[in-house]
Amino acid sequence: xxxxxxxxxxxxxxxxxxxxxxxxxxxxxxxxxxxxxxxxxxxxxxxxxxxxxxxxxxxxxxxxxxxxxxxxxxxxxxxxxxxxxxxxxxxxxxxxxxxxxxxxxxxxxxxxxxxxxxxxxxxxxxxxxxxxxxxxxxxxxxxxxxxxxxxxxxxxxxxxxxxxxxxxxxxxxxxxxxxxxxxxxxxxxxxxxxxxxxxxxxxxx
Length: 205
Hints:
Elements: H1 3-9, E1 17-20, H2 26-32, E2 38-42, H3 45-57, E3 64-68, E4 81-87, H4 89-98, E5 105-110, H5 114-123, E6 126-136, E7 139-148, H6 155-160, H7 168-187, H8 193-203
Parallel strand pairs: 1-2, 1-4, 2-3, 4-5
Antiparallel strand pairs: 5-7, 6-7
């Protein structure tokens, strides 16, 4: 399944969703077909207009409201679930940091820097409900679902994840990451402490 498919499965019928950086509103369309209303925002007016055309052609405009917005600026007050996918960890954390609201659920798909994302979301008062590795278009991604909580994580948890669903894709991802880390280790002549620590944590599971 694609990232969008996996994200949609993490959304319940009573969630009020805002897809930040919605692009072509693929998630909103998928949710609309389940009868779930949602909001979508993007910083680009052209992207939003193109998405509206697609939604109108599918006759789903009653289910999806789109608007131009930078992050959660002007976000509707009834939203309790955020989706932030297809952007970096630093951007995700910056968006949440600038928001003055607490959300019941935040679903992220960062491209990199998962340890940074886990740590900073944790510092902003969110704990990790679950993590799931997906393989989409030749790349691995980690979907992380955050919820309000005061659990503090240790360095191992921040580095390799918390409440990870350990299915077949996860073990393939783990093998891929270990091989990648060993290549980095060889190039650095075994002097990269963070890489060595990461390998140790993964191999000790």
